[in-house]
Amino acid sequence: MRATLGLLALSTLSACAYTEDGWVFQPFQGPGYTLEEGLVLETDADTTYIAAATYLPVARDQLSLFDDRMAPIIDEMEAGPEGLVGYSLGQKMVGKEYRTLTVWEDEEAMVQWAMSEHHLAAIGDAGRIRDPDKTPLIVVWEVSPDALPVDWAEVMERTDSDGESRGY
């Protein structure tokens, strides 16, 4: 799914979840979690995954750069990088605010992907991309297989209350 309308493709909006405060989220899916089957990975009682969520307010004059940086990242997510369980993207329909959620089999997979070429390029430009009047946030936590897909209300609560500031 190519997702640059800011983030979400017009053709996928009917499958998205909406919130009362204007957020729209694509369905959570990936190599380890499908809409049809749910979790497709083998688990046991001790299995936990690593969830990472971000909030990025984008400066209005930097939307093109944001889209340029997000396009290859979305391509990577669609290709299913090693260790990815699933992901979802969100966009505030009024305003230029974006959220991401990724769930990984382990921390090593998450860190390996975070150090990928396209992700590092996006991080390198984050200081230019972000709205200087708002604070980007990131939060990482453990999630159990039975908690998938993680509810976006929980993701937003965790990010907004426990997220670390990214002042780029």
Q: How would you characterize the overall build of this protein?
A:
This protein is an alpha+beta fold. It is built from 4 helices and 9 strands, in the order E-E-E-E-E-H-E-E-H-H-E-H-E. It has helices at residues 63-79, 107-114, 117-129, 152-162, and strands at residues 17-18, 23-25, 33-34, 38-39, 49-57, 84-92, 97-104, 137-143, 164-165. The strands form 2 sheets. The chain has a 7-stranded antiparallel β-sheet with strand order 1-2-6-7-5-8-9. The longest helix has 17 residues, at 63-79. The protein is globular and about 45 Å long. The two termini are 29 Å apart. The model is unreliable at 1-6 (pLDDT under 50).
The string of secondary-structure elements, in order, is EEEEEHEEHHEHE
Please estimate the helix content.
25-40%
Q: What is the spatial order of strands in the main beta sheet?
A: 1-2-6-7-5-8-9
Oligomer: single chain
Largest pleated sheet: 7 strands, antiparallel
- Rounded to the nearest angstrom, the radius of gyration is 15 Å
The residue ranges in which pLDDT falls below 50 over 5 or more consecutive positions are: 1-6
Mean pLDDT score, rounded?
90
Number of helices: 4
Distance between the termini: 29 Å
Determine the structural class based on helices, strands and strand pairing.
alpha+beta
Percent of residues in beta strands: 25-35%
Question: What is the strand tally?
Answer: 9
What coarse outline follows from CA principal-axis ratios?
globular
